[in-house]
Each structure stands twice: as structure tokens, then as C-alpha cells.
Amino acid sequence: MPNGNVHTMYDSNSADWYNKRDGAFRASTRHETKAEASSRGQELARNTGSEWLGHKKDGNTINDRRTYGEDPFPPRG
């Protein structure tokens, strides 16, 4: 299984939400709701110690993200 970041995005052609890893050709999973897709995407990222990025319906805007494993840019303090 690749260890790239996991993106949860909307597919306007099929009207569903999907999870896809960086560099992957196809979606890893598909879901009817964003909540289901986000939950599964975070689980995929957690299992491989990568980052999960939740996109808005427009496909470009990232509105949520979680880092699992080592954070390359940890917060100060």
C-alpha cells in the first residue's frame, strides 16, 4: 500500500465522495457522504502514518487536515 497523503474529494460526475492517495491512479474508496469518506480517509492515513486532507466540494480548497505519524512542521511551544 502506498504511503502518500490521503485526499478526500468530491466527484461531480458520479456525485459521491472518494479517498485517493498522492500518486495513485484510482480512488482507494468511494462513499455517499463526506462524513463517511472523511472518516475512512483519516483511518487510511492513520494506518500508514501519513497526512489526511479534506477538500471542499470545489475540489481545490482544503478545509481540514490531520497529520498522523511524524509531523514535518510541528507547532511551536
What's the number of extended β-strand segments?
A: 5
Sequence of strands across the biggest β-sheet? 3-2-1-4-5
**First-residue to last-residue Cα separation:** 34 Å
Low-confidence stretches: none
**C-alpha-based Rg, rounded:** 12 Å
Let me know the average pLDDT: 92
Helix count, DSSP H or I runs of 4 or more residues? 1
Major sheet details: 5 strands, mixed
What is the gist of this entry?
This protein has one helix spanning 34-48, and strands spanning 6-11, 16-21, 29-31, 51-55, 62-67. It has 77 residues and is an alpha+beta fold.
Structure report:
It contains 1 helix and 5 strands. Helices cover 19% and strands 34% of the residues. The model has no long low-confidence stretch (mean pLDDT 92). The longest helix is centred in the middle third of the chain and has 15 residues, at 34-48.
Please describe the topology of this protein.
Blueprint: E1 6-11, E2 16-21, E3 29-31, H1 34-48, E4 51-55, E5 62-67
Parallel strand pairs: 1-4
Antiparallel strand pairs: 1-2, 2-3, 4-5
